[in-house]
Write a structure and sequence with these properties.
CATH class of the largest domain: Mainly Beta
Largest sheet: 3 strands, antiparallel
Helix content: 10-25%
Number of domains: 2
CATH architecture of the largest domain: 3-layer Sandwich
CATH superfamily of the largest domain: Rieske [2Fe-2S] iron-sulphur domain
Order of helices and strands: HHEEEHEEEEEE
Strand content: 15-25%
Length: 201
């Protein structure tokens, strides 16, 4: 203690201790703050490719899986369904050749799928009008969808948009474009991977 009654060594100790505790508090607050800038495990997983076993998907059936927070429909079409998609006369579909559709370059033809895998249709199950989920309606001749004119496909109950069994949009409905085809590749005859381009794999 000095002559003026101040204990300088105690003051230095308290100042040092306070600085250490304060510094630890700043570091403790900074770590979660900086960590919050990193994407969460859920966010990382949301963009990851999705593997789907399609071996038990029956002809005429549909599977729904989630990829990047969106529903993806996988439909297995029979020979009759594939034959009907080529029978649409001019003017029934807005974009029969899918020239303005969101789809990978390696997806071609009226089947809108990979060559050799025509029976399987893989598409994002969101209407291109306002994002509702279209219903899968493979029932040919459904009275509520046009009777004999309905050859099967997808119907959006929100605003009445119709799509054929390749996800191509009918003319005269609110949806502006065909349903989106996501990037995909076949790992084997039974395993489909959504989120990886066939040309890259």
């Amino acid at each position: 203690m000095t002559s003026d009654g101040v204990n300088h060594s105690r003051r230095k100790f308290l100042l040092g201790a306070t600085s250490v505790v304060g510094g630890a508090g700043v570091v403790g607050a900074a770590i979660p703050f900086v960590s919050s800038w990193q994407p969460s495990a859920k966010a990382k997983a949301a963009g990851a490719p999705v593997k789907v076993n399609i071996s038990k998907l029956e002809v005429g059936g549909r599977l729904v899986v989630e990829w990047r927070g969106k529903p993806v429909y996988i439909v297995r079409r029979d020979a009759a369904a594939l034959a009907t998609i080529d029978t649409f006369s001019e003017g029934i579909l807005k974009d029969p050749a899918s020239e303005s559709a969101a789809q990978p370059d390696y997806v071609a033809g009226s089947a809108r799928t990979l060559t050799g895998k025509e029976e399987f249709l893989v598409l994002v199950g969101l209407c291109t009008h306002l994002g509702c989920a279209p219903m899968y309606r493979p029932d040919v001749g459904a009275v509520d969808l046009g009777g004999d004119a309905w050859l099967g496909g997808f119907f959006c109950p929100c605003h009445g948009s119709k799509f054929d069994l390749s996800g191509r949009v009918y003319a005269g409905v609110p949806a502006p474009t065909n349903l989106e085809i996501p990037p995909h590749v076949y790992e084997s005859d039974d395993v489909l991977i959504i989120g990886i381009d066939s040309e890259v794999a």
